[in-house]
Structures are given as C-alpha cells and as structure tokens.
Amino acid sequence: MAAVNFKVNGTAHSVDADPSTPLLWVLRDHLGLTGTKYGCGVAQCGACTVHLNGEAVRSCQLPLDGLAGAEVVTIEGLAARGGETLQRLWAELNVPQCGYCQAGMLMAASGLLKKTPKPSDADIDAAMTNICRCGTYGRIRAAIKRAAGIAA
Amino acid sequence: MNTDRRAFMVTAGVLAGGMALAVRPANAAGAPAPWGPDGPIGNELTPWIEIAADSTVTIRVPQPESGNGTMTQIAMNVAEELHCAWSDIRVVNASVQRDYVEKNVYTHGMLPFFSGHATDRKRMDFTMRLGAAARERLKLAAAARWGVPAAQITAKDSVLSHAASGRALRFGEVAAEAAKVGMLAEPELKPEAEWTLIGKKAPPKLFLPAVANGSAVFGIDVKLPGMVHAALLQVPVMGGRLKSHQPEAVLKMPGVRAVVVIDPAKSRRTALKDQTSFGLSNVTEAQHAVAVIADHYWQAKMALEALPVEWDMGEGGKVSSHEAIYNAMRTVRDAGAGKAVVTKGDVAAAKGKRTFEAEYSTPYADNAVMEPLNGTARVTADGCELWCPTQDSRQAYWVAIDETGLPPEKVTVHNTLVGGNFGRRTQAEDLRMVVAIARQFPGVPVKTIWTREEMFRQGRYRTPISTRFKAVLDDATGLPEAVSGDLCFAGDRPLFQLTQGYGDAPYFNTGAIPNVRLTTIAHPVHVLNGAYRAPCLNSNAFITETFIDECAHLAGSDPLEYRLKLLASWEKPWSDTLRLVAEKSGWGVKLPKGEGLGIAITNWPVATMRNFGSTMAIAARVSVSKAGELKVSRIDVAFDCGRIANEDAVRNQIEGGILFGLNMTLNEEMTIKDGAMVEGNYDEYPMLRMGDALPDVHIHLGALSGHNRFDLIGELPACPIGPAVGNAIYSATGKRLRTTPFRKQDLSWT
User: Fold this and answer.
1) Could you say which DSSP state residue A29 is in?
2) Where do the H-state alpha helices sit in B10-120?
3) How many angstroms away from the CA of B69 is the closest CA of chain A?
C-alpha cells in the first residue's frame, strides 16, 4: 500500500489504506467526515453522493487507488462552494424528515444547479436519482426550484 | 422544596395547580452526573429544562427524533408557556438512565421514551406546565432582584420586563436564581386564546440546519477515542445456528482485531423487572451470528467476506418459498379454527340472493430504513455505554441491561439522531447484537454496522396477512346483510398480529351490517415479524377497503355512496373526510376507460372508539395504458386528528406517509427461497424516486372536527393510499387487485 494524495474540501490529504477502500469509507473512517452517508454500497441510493472534480458521484463506488490528484467536495464543504442557499432552503422548507439521505440529496441538487441553473422538471428527475424512504421528494423539488428562482 | 435555599412566596397571579410536576430546585453546584454529558451543566429548573447564562434554553426530551419532529414539538409545548425566543431553544435527548436513577422524572404520558406522541394529551399538558413553572420562577427571581411584585413582570421572547420602571433582563441573567426558587403551588396554564405557537406557527424541525451542513450525528456517525468497527453476518435462515467457522483464515488480514461469535443463549439476562414498553420477550433476541472487529469498517467487512463459515439452517431451511408459506396460511385460515374477534347476529341466517366471496393478501415487506441498523457500545466489567439510534430509548436501555447483566445504574444510553424508523428500531434486538459483540471485545467502543444486505435479509418484517371475506347482500338495499371474514397472520409473535382495520372497522361494529363473524388465526413461521409503519393496518386497510369496494360494485352502487350509507350511524368525521375528498377529486364525473378514481378510508389506532385516533380518506386518480402501465396522477387527502399543533409537521407526515404506502402497495415484497430472504439491496427491492412520475398530493384540512385532541398522524397515511389506488385501477380497467405489490400483476386491458 502506498499513500494516495487528494484534496477534500480544499484540504490536502494523504491516505494510506487498502487500495480497494471506497471513498465513502475513506471520508468517514479515515478523515472523520461523517456527513457523507452509507446507505447501500452499490450505487443505488445516493446517500453517499459527493462531488468529484465537480461531478456529483456515488462515493461508495470510488476506490481509494483511483483518487490520486482528485478534488473532492463533501457536504461539510458545500456551504463554502455555492451550496449555502440550497442548505438554507432545505431547513426553511422543512425538507428533511429523518435527514439521513439529505446530504446526498443536497450534493446531487447542487451538482445539478451548477450545470443547469434553471432546471426543468425533467432535468430534476434525471439528476435526482437518490432514494428517500421518508418521502420528501416533493419538498426537494420545491427547494431546488426556489433556489433556482423558478416558480414552483 | 429545599428549605435551606431562599424560597419565594407565590404571587397572587399564580394559582394552585396541584400537578405533580418534576420541578425542583436544581443542583446548581453541578455535581458530575453518572450520565455524563447528558447531565445537568448549569441552571436546571427541572430535569427537562436548563437555562444558560446566555439564555440558551436546553430542553431534554425523552423521545428520540426520527424525522417526525417529536423533539421540536416538545419544544413548542414548553415554549408556548415559557415565553422564550424560539431561536434560544436547543433540544437534546433526556437520559433514560437518569430517569431510572431519579425515579421516573421523564416518565410522563403514553410510551414515554418512544419516538413520537409529542402531542399526547398528558404529555402535552405536562410539558406545557413545565414551561409555565419555569417562566414563573424566572419572574419571581426578577421580582426579587428588582423588589417589585412578580405580577407586574411580563415574560416575552426570553426577556423579563417591568413596564413601570422600564427595566428588563434576559432569562439567562436570572436563571441561576430562578433555579433556586421554590413555589408553594404550580401555576395554571394560560388560556388557549393566548397561544402564540401551538396551532399558530409551524416551525421547521430544529435539527435541520445540522442535517443540511453535514454536522448532524446519526448513530452511524458516532466517533469515540479508540473506537473499532465490526461487520456482522447473521445466520441466513432465521433460527439457524453456526456450524463452524475458521477465524484463523482472516485474523492476519490488515486491521483485524478479533472474530467473535454471537450465541443468543449466552445473554447474561437481568433478574430485575424491566420497565420497557414492549417487554424483554423473544422479540428482543439476537440471531446466531459471526462478526469481525477491525480498525476500520472496510477492513472488517472485507475480512468477514473472506471468513469461511458454515451454517446449520435449522427447520426454517426446509421452507421452500414464500409461496409455500402463503399456501399454508390459506389452509390454516380455511380450517375453521380461527378465534372470533367480532360476532354479531347470525351470518348463516342471511337470505340475500347476491353473494360474493374473495381472498385478499399482503406479502412480507421490509422497513428499508435509510440508516442501516448500527450502534456503538463500550462494555467493561463495571459498566456499559451505548450510543445508538433507537425508536425507544427505554427499550434500548433495558435490552443493554439484559444483555450485560449489569445493574441499571451502570448502563448508559446516548441517543443519536435516527435515520428512519417506521417501526424497525422498536424492539432493540439490533442493539442487543451491538452489545453482545462489544462485550466480547471489552474496554473499547465497538461500532457495529449492518450492511444493506444484512438489513434486507435480516429484517423484522411486516406481518403478511391472508383474509377470505364472504358477503351476502341485502336484496332491497344492496348493503351487506352478512359478512364473514377469516384472517391468517404469518408468524408466531402476537405483538405483531393486530386486527386494526379489520376487527375494529366501523362497517362491522356499528350495526350497519347486522350479521358479522370475523376470525383470526396465526400460522407460525421461522421468518420473524416486527413493527412496520401502522402494523397490520397497512394490510387490513387494503383488504377491507378493497372488499367493501367489491361489495359496492356488486350491488351496483357508487363506492362513495355505499360507504356513506354504511357509515351513516358512525361518527361524522368518517363521512366528512369521504365527502371532502370526493368533492376535491371530482368524484362522479364520467371518465374514459383507462382512467379511474378510487376511494378508501381508515383509522389509526382504534376505529371503534369515538373521538379517538385519526381518520383519513383518500381519493386516488389513476390512468392505466392498454399495455398496463400505471400512473397515479393525483391524490386527495382529508383527515381528522381533532386539532393540529404544527400544520407543516402534519403535512410533512402525510406527504411522506402517502409515498411510503404507495411504494408498499406498488413495489414492495420480500421473497423467500429455502428459508432465506432473497432480496438484498435496493436494486432488488425498488423504491419510488423523483423520476417516477409521482402523484400530485392535495392535503385538505376541511374535515378536521376540532375535537380537543392532537392525535397521531405518522402511521395512518401509509394505509388508505393502497386500496384507493387499487379501487381506482378497478374503476379504470375492470381489473380487481386483491394482493400487492401491483408491479408484479398484469394491468393490461383491451
């Protein structure tokens, strides 16, 4: 094993762990960034969504040995990178219920708005593939539209 | 009262209350409490309320937060009387250990440590009185400082004011003195007309900013010095045993510390009488299992996957499939040995010419909570600390006591946020597993996390139900002259065999149907049942409301009018909710084939008590293509829970509950092969997502009765949605769906 160097929320890290360790568990266990959640481990639920080099991705599918030089943004770094409005609306509109999936939802939503500042419903459907068992989808859509300045 | 501290006389404005409040002068010295960080740290006015010098109001809530807003609602109850600024409030979990040591200081109202019921009548009244008691003590403390009568002092937004002299203080400035105030009698609650929060404002849940910025701590996020991680594999067939394993094959893998075996027979057990809501019966038992403990979770998981393990699958392994279970249930159901739960008149005496008989059923389903089961425990010879997401802290506490055999004073539970419950974390058998693993690796915190596959395959599943209904329709009215029902539950746990929506349906109990005989029986199965949102009502509502719909169609009646006739003698909210959703959904308009409206109604938790629980009617609008593609386009909801304390919180629960029930109806089924559960992850157990053309949900408040109760709303919405959609599909296509999930059935038509 050799250490892998990459950045998380602008901070450089060097992690020496099994090369198969998914970014999800690197963040949670090695770097102490527990905002990114484990939900399924098979890229289904999206609770582990982070931004990798600007793209919203499922971190449970990214092994450590592919991360050299990567720029990762997690929920903990989102406010400083343009996510503040979404985060504020998430609370104001009482979007989350249990809240467990919502870090992934916010990372997916902010990824969407970066690429598509005025998303259509179809854009939202295509980008927001994460699972919420509490059933907060309607409010997530409303918050994304509010953040984008689109009438709900 | 403490006589060695300065006590203030009660002012004229404070009336005798007579309530046994847990208010007492605080231990302001702040002696370290055994419950550590959960203990008092400042000016504690009661074990529930502490006010810091900066006026931060800490409210300790016994019920864990799992997304229903229970902790925020308790804060609303307190703040309504305390008159603190909403922004000064922080809520934390009360210590269940402290409740034990200090003899029930947090035990008030129904299910005191269960997530929910924040508006339970007794609890609401009690928590409001706590707020009033704290407020009056603050006033008395300010009055003493200023030398003015307390009656001249007002409290608003965390500020105490004396208008005549223009003086003002923040709560925090006199909190230390207020904590020492004794009162001869507790204050009465203010008149409802003066309420400014309850029913007036709808604050979002207090923990949401932390969720949105990633700092919220769920059970899985607990971080402790020296903590190690465990990956868990339970016997694939419930009730089976470990035959052999080879720990030496993995002990040298990186980071691996230990391989442990969990044998339920080795629980130490407590000799004490427990104080749990659900008891320490077999529902709290762990299954046989192995676990690998390592420095990091990924290391533990990889080593567990490499661990050679052989299981004895036991008797359960002989159960070939879920179909075999369902067939056995039919046989048991139809053998005539069921216990009568409703008997009225004589079903054999009915003379009507039109008769109807059909079988209805629901399958195994998993709660599929988003946060996998987990917990962190540190066990030593002298104590146990447990950090956990749980739906019932007292259940968690006593299961930890039972597993370790330690005295209750030595066991501490630290609550975290909970990433979804829906019943899954009620019995704490998961936390028994966490403690059972940790006590084999004593002295350091051990965090155990279920994989998603373990979650799905080691559930405590919704109780499957199979019911045969027979109806004889009255020749003149078309209403049922007689109804017979025989119901079979799968499983051997009476705790999860409820007749809600069946035995308590008003149709069968009000005399509207003169002859009724309903029975229940159980078919024991090795697959374990648990609580799943609105236990058994989630099946029975589908079954009963589909059956009644069929009777209406057989009678040639409109399903809405038919229900209204059957419910004419029952309490008004049932008719009001039905009429309201009919009006809002455009009921009665002729629709082209392939489009349909369906209706259904039910109640949680007891339909046959007047002014009790919540009643909800749903009208569903669907379209079904000729090829059988279903789209649920619009849902209209009307309900009566009496009154509403926080409208947005209620809407939130209804919106979510409807999607939960829709997913249950359209998608969910756990299947079985050779005794083991088949589905292992979300790719095999589909969940509705945003791209699934979800219905527009319209929630109507117009059927609220205003009866003086703020009743349960979390369980109910998952139940009437399924039959409403099924009845709409019949209306659209003529196809009657008598079982779920709908996705496995052919809805095509010509």
Assistant:
1) I
2) 70-82, 96-101
3) 8
Q: Which of B211, B221, B660 sits opposite A102 (nearest CB)?
A: B211
CB contact under 8 A, A129 and B689: yes
In this complex, the residue of B208, B220, B421 whose CB is nearest that of residue A38 is: B220
| Strand arrangement of the beta sheet that strand B289-294 belongs to | B256-262, B289-294, B228-234, B446-449, B374-380, B383-388, B411-415
pLDDT above 80 for B21: no
Determine the angle formed by the axes of helices B647-666 and A137-148, rounding to 10 degrees: 120
Asked whether the predicted pLDDT for residue B93 surpasses 90, the reply is yes
Q: Which of B57, B33, B32 is nearest to B43 (CA)?
A: B57
pLDDT score for B412: 96
The number of CA neighbours under 13 Å toward the Cβ of A101 is: 28
Residue of B nearest to A45 (CA): B682
pLDDT digits (tens, 9 = 90+) for B403-442: 999 999 999 999 999 999 999 999 999 999 999 999 999 9
> What pLDDT is recorded for position B685?
98
Distance CA B412, CA B380 (A): 12
Q: Do B655 and A136 touch (CB under 8 A)?
A: yes
Strand B696-700 and strand B630-640: the pairing is parallel
Q: What is the DSSP secondary structure assignment for residue B716, as one 8-state letter?
A: G
On the question of pLDDT at B312 being above 80, the answer is: yes
In which band, very low, low, confident or very high, does the pLDDT at B19 lie, cut at 50, 70 and 90? very low
Q: Does residue B428 come out as left (phi exceeding 0), alpha (psi in the -120 to 50 range) or beta?
A: left
How close is the nearest chain A Cα to the Cα of B672, in Å?
Answer: 21
B contacts of A90 (beta carbons < 8 Å):
208, 211-212
Q: Does B359 touch chain A (CB under 8 A)?
A: no
Residue written as token pair 């924040």: B118
Q: Does the pLDDT value for residue B26 go beyond 50?
A: no
State whether residue B205 is helix, strand or coil.
Answer: coil
Asked if the Cβ–Cβ distance from B682 to A45 is below 8 Å, we say yes
* CA–CA min distance B649, chain A (Å): 8
Burial classification of residue B444, based on how many CB atoms lie within 10 Å of its CB (0-12 exposed, 13-18 middle, 19 or more buried): middle
Residue of B72, B215, B298 to mutate for A, most A C-beta atoms under 10 A: B298
Mean of the pLDDT values across residues B36-46?
66
Q: Is the ipTM of this complex over 0.90?
A: yes
* B183-221 per-position pLDDT tens digit: 989 999 999 999 999 999 999 999 999 999 999 999 999
Exposed (0-12), middle (13-18) or buried (19+): which is B310, by Cβ within 10 Å?
A: exposed
Q: What is the pLDDT of residue B30?
A: 41
Task: Return d(Cα B248, Cα B62) in angstroms, integer.
Answer: 44
Does the distance separating the beta carbons of A33 and B691 come in below 8 Å? no
Give the pLDDT of residue B277.
Answer: 83
Q: What is the DSSP letter of B333?
A: H
B476: number of Cβ within 10 Å: 8
